[in-house]
TrEMBL record:
Main subcellular location: membrane
Domain RCK C-terminal: 206-290, 295-381
One GO term (biological process): potassium ion transport
Localization of this protein: Membrane
PROSITE patterns: NA_SULFATE, RCK_C
Keyword annotations from UniProtKB, A to Z: Membrane, Repeat, Transmembrane, Transmembrane helix, Transport
Transmembrane segments: 6-22, 29-49, 97-118, 139-158, 178-196, 399-425, 445-463, 500-519, 526-547, 567-587
Gene Ontology MF term list: monoatomic cation transmembrane transporter activity
Domain of life: Bacteria
Official protein name in the record: Di/tricarboxylate transporter
C-alpha cells in the first residue's frame, strides 16, 4: 500500500477517534482532517473545496429555508398536532413517527422529508413532554430504511439500477422489487428502536430543553372570535398539558373560574391565565386562535411581522420607577408592550397597567426586532435580552407554505426537476408569499452542518485518490473468495463502511465493478450482489456523517458522535444479516 494510502488511513482513524471521544466540534475536526490531507499532498485544494460546490450540500442548505417557512407559517404545528397526534408513551410516539415517515420516504427523496419533519418533531416533542433525542434518530433511520423499499427511494438506488441495466440488459428490476428486502428492514428497524432506544439513546430534550428554576411569568391570553379552539374542551384544545405552563384560571364575563376541569369548554372571549417560564410563553403565543390578553399589545401596531419577545430588567435609573405602567405610559415611551412581570422571583398578578414598577423588576415585552440594539446600553435597563425564536407565527400563511411544499415534492417526483432547483424555487416562494422574512431565511441555515457535509466529501475524495479504498476492498475479497454468502457479507461490510467515509453513491459506484467481478468469478448471478449494494449504501446508521439525514437530526437531537455508534452499529449488523439471508432467497445465486 502506498504512502498516501497509509497516511490517509492514519488521518481517518484519528478523525474518528476525535469525533467519538473529544469535545471538539465535528466541523472543526473534519476541516482539520481535510487540511492535513492538503498539507501532505494527498489531495489538491480544488478537491478539498469540491464539497462547497456540491449540489447535495447546497440542497440541504436551501431546504433549511423551506423548513423554516413551514415552521413560521404554523404549518409545522398543524402537522405535529393533526398528523402525529398525542401519544401516551415514547414507544407509541416512535411508532407513530417511524412508520408514516418510512412509507413517505419510499416514494420521495428522504432529505426533504426529514427537513420537513425535524421542526415538526421538535414541536411535537415539546408539546407532549417527550424526549426529542428519543425521536430524532428514529426519524432519520425511518427515512433511510423507507428509501430501501422502492427503486426511486434514494438516488443510490437509481444510479445502481442504471448500472445494472447497462451490465445485464435482459434482467430488469421492477419499481417495488427491492421491497422484498426493504420492508423487512423497516420492520426490524422499528422493532429495534422501540426495544432498545431507551437504553441506547440519551434521554434529553436537545434544543428544546427548559431550565429548571427559571423565572415564571403570569400571562393572559384571549380566545379569539372564530377561533378553532372555541367549542373545544381544554383537553381537546391541547391546553391542559402544555410543557412549562399551568392554566391557573379562566375569566369569563368577569367571573373567575379557578381550578378549571379538563372537560371545561372554551368560548370566544374567554381570558385564560397561564403561569410558566419564558420559553413556554413563546410556545403559548404561537397557538393558533389565542392572542395576548394585554390591550397594550394591540396599540403597538396591527402588523405582527418583525415583533418578538424581549426580557428586560428595570434599572434604578429608569424614569418610570415608582410609577404604574399605565401612568408612566410605558408603551408610548419604549414602543413596547409589557406581557408579564416578575419581581424577586415571584409572579406579579393582577392588571399590569396598575403595577407600580420597581428597580430589579423583570419584564417580558413584545416589541420590534430593533429594541435590543436600541436599548442594550441604555441606562433605563440593566439587561436586555431577546427571547430566541419568539417571532409570532403567520398562521394566515399556513396553506401557502403547505402548497409550496407539495409543489416542490410534485416537481421532483413527477416532473424530474432536480432537488436543488425545486428547493430553491420553494424557498424563494416562501419569502415572496410572506411565510418568512429574508432575515429569517438567512438565519435558518445551519452552516455548521453544511461544513461537516462539505468536509466529509473532501475526506472521502482523499480515501479514493490515495488508493486506500481499492486496497481495502481487494484485501478483504482475497479472504472471502470462494463463498457466495461470505462474498455478499463482504460486499455489505465494505459498502456500509465506505458509505460512512465517502458519499453513498460514490461508495456504491466504487464497489459495483468489484461485486460484478466477484459474481463472475464465483459463477453466480450478479442480482443479489446489486441488491446488497443498494441496501448497504444506505445503511449509514453508525455515524452522523454517513448520511445527510443523520446530520440534519444531529444538532436538534442533542446527540454526540458516539450516540450514533452505540445505536446505529448494532442496527447496521442486523440489517446486514437480514440482507445477506433474504437476497439469495428472492434472487437466487
Amino acid at each position: 500500500m502506498a504512502f498516501d494510502a497509509w497516511l490517509t488511513l492514519l488521518i481517518v482513524a484519528v478523525t474518528f477517534i476525535l469525533l467519538a471521544l473529544s469535545s471538539i466540534t465535528a466541523d472543526g475536526i473534519l476541516v482539520s482532517a481535510v487540511a492535513c490531507l492538503v498539507a501532505f499532498g494527498v489531495i489538491d485544494i480544488p478537491t478539498a473545496l469540491q464539497g462547497l460546490s456540491n449540489e447535495g450540500v447546497a440542497t440541504v442548505g436551501v431546504l433549511y429555508i423551506v423548513a423554516r417557512g413551514l415552521s413560521q407559517s404554523g404549518a409545522v404545528a398543524w402537522m405535529s398536532q393533526g398528523v402525529l397526534g398525542r401519544p401516551r408513551s415514547t414507544m407509541t410516539a416512535q411508532l407513530r413517527l417511524m412508520l408514516p415517515v418510512a412509507a413517505v420516504s419510499s416514494v420521495l427523496n428522504n432529505t426533504p422529508v426529514v427537513a420537513m419533519m425535524v421542526p415538526a418533531v421538535s414541536d411535537w416533542a415539546r408539546r407532549n413532554k417527550l424526549s426529542v433525542s428519543q425521536l430524532m434518530m428514529p426519524l432519520s433511520f425511518a427515512a433511510i430504511t423507507g428509501g430501501l423499499c422502492t427503486l426511486v427511494g434514494t438516488s443510490t438506488n437509481l444510479v445502481l439500477n442504471d448500472m445494472f441495466n447497462r451490465y445485464q440488459a435482459d434482467v430488469r428490476l421492477s419499481l417495488f422489487e427491492i421491497a422484498w428486502v426493504g420492508v423487512p428492514c423497516v420492520l426490524v428497524m422499528a422493532a429495534y428502536v422501540v426495544i432498545f432506544s431507551r437504553r441506547l439513546l440519551p434521554n434529553k430534550s436537545g434544543f428544546t430543553a427548559k431550565l429548571e428554576g427559571g423565572r415564571e411569568y403570569v400571562v393572559e391570553m384571549v380566545v379569539e372570535p372564530f377561533s378553532p379552539l372555541a367549542g373545544l374542551s381544554i383537553e381537546k384544545a391541547g391546553l391542559r398539558h402544555l410543557p412549562g405552563l399551568f392554566l391557573v384560571e379562566i375569566v369569563r364575563n368577569n367571573r373567575v373560574m379557578p381550578a378549571v376541569a379538563s372537560s371545561e369548554v372554551l368560548y370566544a372571549g374567554d381570558r385564560l391565565v397561564f403561569a410558566g417560564d419564558v420559553e413556554a410563553v413563546v410556545d403559548l403565543k404561537r397557538i393558533h386562535g389565542l392572542r395576548s390578553g394585554e390591550e397594550q399589545v394591540f396599540k403597538l401596531d396591527d402588523v405582527q411581522d418583525g415583533r418578538c419577545l424581549i426580557e428586560v430588567v428595570i434599572s434604578a435609573n429608569n424614569p418610570l420607577v415608582g410609577e404604574s405602567v399605565r401612568d408612566g405610559r410605558f408603551r408610548t415611551r419604549y414602543t413596547a408592550a409589557i406581557i408579564a412581570i416578575t419581581r424577586e422571583g415571584e409572579k406579579v398578578k393582577g392588571r399590569l397597567g396598575d403595577v407600580e414598577l420597581r428597580a430589579g423588576d423583570n419584564l417580558l415585552l413584545e416589541a420590534a426586532d430593533d429594541f435590543v440594539e436600541q436599548y442594550a446600553y441604555a441606562k433605563d435597563f440593566l439587561l436586555v435580552s431577546r427571547v430566541a425564536n419568539s417571532e409570532p407565527l403567520r398562521h394566515g400563511k399556513r396553506w401557502w407554505a403547505i402548497s409550496i411544499l407539495l409543489a416542490m415534492v410534485v416537481a421532483v417526483s413527477g416532473f424530474g426537476v432536480s432537488m436543488l432547483g425545486a428547493a430553491v424555487l420553494a424557498s424563494f416562494a416562501m419569502v415572496m408569499t410572506g411565510c418568512l422574512s429574508t432575515f429569517e431565511a438567512r438565519s435558518s441555515i445551519d452552516f455548521q452542518v453544511l461544513m461537516v457535509i462539505a468536509a466529509s466529501i473532501a475526506l472521502g475524495a482523499g480515501v479514493q485518490q490515495s488508493g486506500l479504498a481499492t486496497h481495502v476492498a481487494s484485501s478483504l475479497f482475497s479472504v472471502v473468495s470462494g463463498s457466495a454468502y461470505l462474498s455478499l457479507a463482504a460486499i455489505f461490510l465494505l459498502t456500509a463502511g465506505f458509505s460512512a467515509l465517502i458519499s453513498n453513491v460514490a461508495a456504491a459506484v466504487l464497489l459495483f465493478p468489484v461485486a460484478v467481478a466477484l459474481s463472475e468469478t464465483l459463477g453466480v448471478s450478479v442480482t443479489p450482489f446489486v441488491i446488497t449494494l443498494m441496501v448497504a449504501a444506505s445503511t449509514c446508521f453508525a455515524t452522523p456523517i454517513g448520511y445527510q439525514t443523520n446530520l440534519m437530526v444531529y444538532g436538534p437531537g442533542g446527540y454526540k458522535f458516539v450516540d450514533f455508534l452505540r445505536m446505529g452499529g448494532p442496527l447496521t449488523f442486523l440489517v446486514g444479516v437480514l440482507t445477506v439471508l433474504i437476497a439469495p432467497l428472492v434472487w437466487p445465486f
